[in-house]
Amino acid sequence: MWSLLVGIGTAAFLQPFWMPASALPDQAHATDAPLVAGLVGAVAVFAVLVEVRRGTMNGATVAMLGVLGATTGLLRLLDLPAGGNAMFWVVLLVGAAFGARFGFLLGMVGMVVGAALTGGFGPWLPFQMLASGGLGALAGGAGRASRSLPRVVQIGVLVAVGWIGAFAYGAVMDLWFWPYAISGGPLSWRPGLGLGGTLRHFWRFYVATSLAWDAAGAFANAVAVAVLGPPVLATLRRFADRLDPVVEIVPDPS
User: Fold this and answer.
1) Separation in Å, CA 127 to CA 113, 123, 130, 183
2) Which end of the chain has fewer CB atoms within 10 angstroms, the N or the C?
3) Domains, the chain, ordered by start
4) What is the pLDDT of residue 7?
């Protein structure tokens, strides 16, 4: 299921590059975004059901996902001083504490809740869900890989993930609309440009439009994780350990 989610997301972001020029719509993803949202939502729900059936999630972890998703969505209303958003450091820390799959789901749920609170529903939403979920999954992988290391190293790893993740999130969210944005010129994409030309033009577009903003977001993520990470991560991991649906085998006293 998780591989299918990744495949759907990758196809959705890259789909414009497979279309002939005459098939490009007037508005970026206006026609296919509802389909992407429906597919992503359905597969995510089915993935949760599979995890529950396997015993890797239970009612308590699903409830925790709902609570943390609502909290993350509320924090989307809070902009950080350096230009970041408060929801992302929560996605990073929760992903590190609960794992990559939980982090992926939290990123998606938080985006949906945030969109409901801000009226931010539009063709961009399923792509924001996938990008934020990817950030949570990345933090989950980093948290698992570094858990046996000293606490200061763990926080340092998450600071690096938050820094790099801000640029990755910004670049991916540029990618969802970039093929539609500009016609002609050194910043735009056109069919037949080739891989090298596409990368060069996208890099120019990213530097011109998003790099400075994403750098501010990266700084905000890094500071938030460095300052709030140690106590929050420790608390979240205690909850994660208590909610982990592990079956304890007790020896037969006879």
Assistant:
1) 15, 8, 5, 22
2) C
3) 2-13+36-243 (1.10.1760.20)
4) 87
